[in-house]
Amino acid sequence: MSRLPDDRMDGAVPADAPRPGTAEFALVGLAALTVEGVVTAALLDVLPVPGGALMAAVGHFALAVLLWGWVWWRVKRDRDARLAGLLAVTTPFLGPLGPACTLATAVMHAIFSRYAMGFQEWYLSLFPESQVEPAQELYELIVSGREQASVAAGESFTDVMTVGSPPQKQAVIALVARHFRPAFTPALKLGLADADPSVRVQAATATARVEHEFNERWQQLDRAVQSNPADAATRYALARHLDDYAFCGLLDTNREQEVRERALEGYRGCLDLAPEDDDIRHDLGRLLLRLGMVAEAAETLAPLAGRTADRRILFWYAESLFRLHRFDDLRDLCRLRADHLGPGADLPDALRDVLDLWNADDRPALEEAA
């Protein structure tokens, strides 16, 4: 992650702490507190003052002008004017409470600044630099999904975000931000709702970072498509990126629907340019099924049913046939692709019993049982 300049953070927010100029600030603050105390006492008839309320109002106005002049003088000489500005703003509106609260703020700042972490150091600690040790790199490769374990890693991250300590949660969020996968979204959402403010802030920063990277990649791919609209590979990369973006779980409902529709439009354009590309046809069919366009999904996936070696395509096609109530076609598919859907096929536990039903030969018995 690129480091921000030492003297500025986020544009106009200085990285260093306020430097009030202790003696000068204390004298001005005490003087303002004294004057405002006298003005308040005069207005309440506690202290007799020549001219009464009129002189009190004049004194209050004069003090406000002097304070603003003092702040302007400090700014012109490149001196820190944050606490001085706070004194000049609060005094005209709060009376003696303004100088009193500002002086109390200066005292608390002097105490807590000895132990507080600087803003720049805190910001950079949210996402520490990646470690280069081989063991750490191997660990990150495994849990980030590069070893086909993204789902398991997502579940592990969720467990840590549920029962882990704040440092453990922060470590998980930093890792998720560097190697984001849609399976990691529940961990980020748990971080956004965490009771610890530091975890919530880091999770919000990580979420913004992920969305920024998605949008930046979107713009790059969009420019590439505009420069070469006839290139199916570039258009497919853009459509797949939008599909992944909509599926990541970080977008609101309307934005997710908008991005998914753009992905659908991109897939259709890609298939027109490369009708023999099975990857494009698979992704288009899957997205159509998710959007509830079941008939078009079945039509899109049908050419792959007899030749594909990817079981996921067969699962999507079988689901589309079932939702269309084309049960005979579903049985025929199980017989045609017995290598992947038949009784002896290595099927996931969640699908084995379902597909066994459609692999059964005794239809009358099944219908009677139903």
SSE string, helices as H and strands as E:
EEHHHHHHHHHHHHHHHHHHH
Instruction: Tell me roughly what share of residues is in helical segments.
Output: over 70%
Would you identify the regions where 5 or more consecutive residues have pLDDT less than 50? 1-15, 142-152, 362-370
Strand order of the largest sheet: 1-2
Q: What fraction strand?
A: under 5%
How would a textbook summarize the main sheet?
2 strands, antiparallel
Global morphology: elongated
Helical stretch count? 19
How confident overall, as mean pLDDT?
78
Structure summary, number of beta strands: 2
Q: Indicate the radius of gyration in whole angstroms.
A: 33 Å
Broad structural category: mainly alpha
Please, could you describe this protein's structure?
- This protein has helices at residues 22-43, 53-76, 82-94, 97-112, 119-125, 134-143, 150-163, 166-178, 185-192, 197-227, 232-247, 253-273, 278-290, 294-301, 311-323, 327-336, 338-341, 349-359, 363-369; strands spanning 8-9, 13-14.
- It is mainly α.
- Strands 1-2 form a two-stranded antiparallel ribbon.
- The longest helix is centred in the middle third of the chain and has 31 residues, at 197-227.
- Mean pLDDT is 78; it is low at 1-15, 142-152 and 362-370.
